[in-house]
Specification:
Layout: E1 7-11, H1 17-30, H2 44-56, E2 61-66, E3 69-78, E4 88-95, H3 104-118, E5 123-129, H4 133-141, E6 145-156, E7 159-169
Parallel strand pairs: 4-5
Antiparallel strand pairs: 1-2, 2-3, 3-4, 5-7, 6-7
Bound molecules: coenzyme A.
Pfam families: Acetyltransf_1
Region (Disordered): 33-52
GO molecular function, one term: acyltransferase activity, transferring groups other than amino-acyl groups
Length: 186
């Protein structure tokens, strides 16, 4: 991993939304993350709304900044909405296509893990396309363990593709009881 320039990880701001959308759309069009643009990609207002909702509910939503440019972003949402799952998040992470392979994803991952742990979450789950070598390597580096394989759940570029499910614990994980009062009622 090379890291020549200074990258700052900070909570995202409303003014970052357009840059985040540019990064996301490029990966949809060219990447293996989604691979299919069904004409239903989020609009700036969708992303703005999602970011605001997450922020209001104190879910981490961070950007990587180089100079004054957004070169990546990452966020976590609840794994499932039912109350029993309130200590478990699933996450997404995207790096600008000109900046992949330079350590930005690792910085974002570190920032997101720390923010999720600090917010009291105990487990973090990722779904990764089985062909996404960069994402598999990134997650392995941060201690995520493969906990499942979902065969042939995606269809793109003329073939069925598997999804790998990865997980790691945060903070004390399952070694202690959750805090009182529960996160959801704070
Ligand atoms: C996946 C992604 C976030 C990784 O971010 P990145 O900035 O390129 O990753 P880093 O440079 O921090 O590298 C992290 C690790 O992955 C490895 N890696 C990076 N690109 C790789 C590749 N193409 N093949 C294999 N390993 C790779 C690095 O060597 C590094 O491991 P190391 O520190 O042990 O050497 C980025 O490629 C991306 O945004 N991809 C498109 C969107 C996406 O797939 N998101 C993830 C959805 S689950």
């Amino acid at each position: 991993m090379k890291q020549d320039k200074t990258i700052v990880i900070r909570p995202s701001r409303e003014t970052d939304v357009d840059a985040m959308l540019t990064i996301y759309r490029r990966h949809i069009r060219h990447g293996i993350e989604d691979g299919v643009d069904d004409g239903d990609t989020p609009q700036p207002d969708d992303l703005r709304e999602r970011r605001k909702n997450l922020k209001d509910r104190r879910f981490p939503h961070v950007v990587a900044i180089e100079g004054d440019k957004v070169v990546g972003y990452a966020y976590a949402v609840l794994f499932r909405k039912r109350p029993a799952y309130r200590y478990t998040v699933k996450h997404s992470i995207y790096v600008h296509h000109d900046h992949v392979g330079q350590g930005v994803g690792s910085l974002l991952m570190r920032g997101l893990i720390d923010a999720c742990a600090a917010a009291g979450f105990r487990q973090m789950i990722g779904y990764i396309d089985a062909d996404n070598a960069a994402s598999l390597a990134l997650h392995e580096r941060f201690g995520f363990v493969r906990v499942g394989l979902l065969p042939a759940v995606a269809y793109r570029y003329g073939r069925w593709a598997d999804t790998v499910m990865v997980q790691r614990s945060l903070g004390p994980g399952s070694t202690t009881q959750p805090p009182q009062p529960p996160l959801s009622r704070r």
